[in-house]
Structure formats: C-alpha cells, structure tokens
Amino acid sequence: MELNRKKIDKEIVAQRFKAAIDTYDNNAVAQKHIQHELLRIITAYCPEIKFKSALDIGCGTCGMTKLLDNEFGIKYWTLNDLNEECYDHGSFRTNTRSKVRFIAGDAEEINYGGTYDLIVCSSTMQWFHDLNAFFLKIKNHLKKDGYLLLSTFGPDNLKEIKTLTGHGLHYPKGDDLKAMLEKHFELCYFQEEHYNMEFTSPREVLEHLKHTGVNAVSATNNFWTPCKLRCFEKDYRDLFGNAEGKVSLTYNPIYILARL
Fold this sequence. Notes:
Layout: H1 10-19, H2 24-27, H3 29-45, E1 53-57, H4 63-72, E2 76-81, H5 85-88, E3 99-104, E4 116-122, H6 131-139, E5 142-153, H7 159-165, H8 174-182, E6 186-192, E7 195-199, H9 202-211, H10 226-240, E8 247-251, E9 253-259
Helix pairs in contact: 3-4
C-alpha cells in the first residue's frame, strides 16, 4: 500500500520543520504526550531488556531519544532526520554518554548503516510514501529479537482542519496498518487514541500548527486571504467551539510495539 506519494513534497516538509525548530519544543504538546506514552509502553513490556544500540528515525529535536536514553542507557545511538540542523539543536549530543552519529536524509532512501537492538520512529511515518517498503527496510536493520517502537496517526488526525479546508494527509486505518506490520513483525502492543487539545481561537490553532511544522502539506501554507481567514475562523467556532469559547483540535495517535 503506497500512501501520500502525490501529496507530500518532502522538501517542503523539511523546510517547514526547519522553520519551526526553535519553536517546536515549546509547542509540541501532543507530540510530547505521544513520546511519554511510547516510553510508558516500552518500559512496561521490556523492563529487563538492555538495549545496546538504537536508531531513531525522524529524531527531530531528540525528545524521544532523550527519554529512551535516560531510561535504558543506550550505548550507541544513530539518529536520522531530514534536517541536519536537528543534530545541533538542544543538548542531547553533549549531555549523553552514548556514542552518537547522525545520518541526514530521507528515511525511505538512506542507508541506516547497520543493525540495531531497538528502532524508534515517533510521529514521522505519516510523511512516508510507502509504508510496506519502510517496514521491510527496518526489518532488515533490526537484530533478531530486537524491538520496534513506533507512533503514527489515524484517519481522525487534525480532522477539524481537513473538514474546513479539504486539505490534509491520507492516514491508514488501524486495521490496515496492523495488517502491514504483521507481515514482518510480532505485534506486542497496538493501540489507537484520540488526544484533544483546546485553543482560545482558530488563529491560535494555525499558529500551533506553524510552530510545530505540522502545516507542511496543509492549507495553512500560502492559503489565507483576509476574507478566507475570517470565514475559516467563523466556521471553526461554529463547528468545533465549546460553551467556554474555546476550540478543539484532534490528534489521533497510534502506538505500536513490535518484535522481530
């Protein structure tokens, strides 16, 4: 199953996340929630396991990397992201005892450079073109009895934006995603969640998307005229406002732990 090939320009994705690199950590509330949930899952299922080597695909500002490194004391890290600037952002590289290397580039195209005890990919797979090919690729880089820790998003992700603009990613249904994974891995955990955020205004929603880079392939890019913005704000409040005058934004994360 190939997904998003016609819609996603990864150069635009890289540009938007690069522009948001300094604002991401302070605004990525849902993404941080997802990272902590992934940590909870893997510590519950793998309490006695010592991961010597790990690969973080789409590491961003290394939020997930830091959590896993603090929990498991991983000796060798390989980090990947579209943006080389991610490697120098924050303090992970200087505050860890691990040996760290960074591989810049498209995760669907690059060589991961070895095999790993743990491969993690948090809130990144939604940008990929071909998930079947990606799962086969990471299978070939996972050691026997190694673990795969993933999060992606389901069809309700950012449903408010898609409802009002008609723009958004195509997300696989949970059952379809599970079927793809089960071709290659033993599933240990698979769970879907709806995580709702509240904002004071629709414009604040747009700022949130901009500051986290999530607007990379949505109508929030080069879309707004004053008239369109006013209509968007009115329709957003009418459809997704509450009695307190706030508006909602839905994230639909899917959490996955699998073993080879």
